[in-house]
Automatic annotation (TrEMBL):
Organism of origin: Gottfriedia luciferensis
Record PROSITE patterns: RADICAL_SAM (PS51918)
Gene3D superfamilies xref list: 3.40.50.12110, 3.80.30.30
Keyword line: Lyase
InterPro entries: rSAM, SPL, SPL_Bacilli, SPL_firmicutes
Keyword Lyase among record annotations: yes
Coiled-coil intervals, chain numbering: none
Record's protein name: Spore photoproduct lyase
């Protein structure tokens, strides 16, 4: 797939006081992109579009360059201790994505240029936990790989973490644009994960992202560049003939990886879930979606922030975990299943 090119770019004035901000302004001017100014990356009020659906789609192709002023990192479990804030928003159109509601009325993509401040705060968190390892997740609020060929923020972060003793970096992507990251001095301290799924899920629910084959080709490049790597199977969705669909996924993955299939790699398993607010937003933005969100068929699970989620019934979840874990053990005997949730 072609790399993401924003149709519209906004800059906070303060962003131009930082080297990365100046660099991006020059780059976007040379690319001939329309550039506007905004007082805050949280207040883009004049987006074009005749209706909400049109404005949403335009927002997904809009990039806002600003500062990350709140430097208290959110916790990120089970995959890491902290989320490191490099960007917010994504150009993909995954129907089920939790960012549909967490980003609410701000689905545009924001990148932060005050990397020095972000790294300084990350160093403080590492210091507080020494000699424990501190893991940072860079993809909690964005698919950072999809935009990093423009900003190189992720590459700089990989090299920053690579120089620490107790820091580790993790992120997941559905995009194949990894070439600029292959020569980064990661020192084995960054784990690269790719999101994979059955044909049915990718075809019906993941428009605007890399194909399965593109993701796996990128995974192979990353593995040969020496990065620890793995896969997130998410959301695991009980579509018609889901058992066969997911077994085919792991067969295709094994075949595509070739000799790499025998390497140590991680797997993270996440069943499909949704909230009531998410369901409302998803149906507004993707009215023809095939995504099943029937509360009557699901189990209500309380969240730690007071917002409950609808997950599969206990027996269904157990079947999903047993089935998917069995496929991984069969086709990837050296693979490590880190969790199922």
């Amino acid at each position: 797939m072609k790399p993401f090119i924003p149709k519209l770019v906004y800059f906070e004035p303060q962003a131009l006081e930082y080297p990365l901000g100046k660099e991006l302004k020059e780059k976007f001017e040379q690319m001939g992109l329309e550039i506007r100014e905004t007082t805050s990356h949280n207040q883009i009020r004049n987006l074009p579009g005749e209706n909400d659906v049109e404005k949403y789609r335009i927002a997904k192709s809009t990039l806002v360059v600003g500062l990350r002023k709140t430097l208290k990192f959110e916790t990120s479990k089970p995959s890491a201790e902290y989320a490191i804030p490099l960007a917010t928003g994504c150009m993909g159109h995954c129907h089920y994505c939790y960012l549909q509601t967490t980003l609410g009325s701000k689905p545009y993509i924001r990148v932060y240029v005050n990397l020095e401040d972000i790294f300084e705060q990350a160093q403080k968190y590492i210091k507080e936990r020494e000699p424990e390892i501190t893991r940072f997740e860079a993809a909690c609020t964005s698919d950072i790989v999809g935009i990093d060929y423009l900003t190189h923020s992720l590459k700089k972060t990989i090299e920053f973490i690579g120089e620490t003793e107790y820091g580790r970096l993790r992120f997941v992507t559905k995009f194949p644009h990894v070439d600029h990251l292959l020569d980064a001095k990661h020192n084995g301290k960054t784990t690269f994960r790719f999101s994979i799924n059955s044909r049915y899920v990718i075809k019906n629910f993941e428009p605007g992202t890399g194909s399965f084959d593109e993701r796996i080709e990128a995974a192979k490049k990353v593995a040969y560049a020496g990065y620890p790597f793995g896969f997130i199977v998410a959301p695991i969705y009980m579509h018609e003939d889901w058992e066969e669909g997911y077994e085919e996924l792991f067969i295709r993955l094994k075949d595509a990886l070739g000799e790499l299939a025998n390497e140590n790699m991680t797997f993270e398993l996440i069943q499909h879930r949704f909230t009531k607010p998410a369901k409302k937003v998803i149906l507004q933005r993707y009215p023809n979606t095939k995504l099943e969100m029937d509360e009557e068929k699901r189990k209500y699970k309380w969240g730690k922030y007071g917002i409950g989620k609808y997950v599969y019934q206990k027996e269904e979840a157990a079947s999903i975990e047993e089935t998917i874990s069995g496929y991984i053990k069969k086709y990837f005997p050296n693979g490590e299943i880190q969790y199922f949730t």
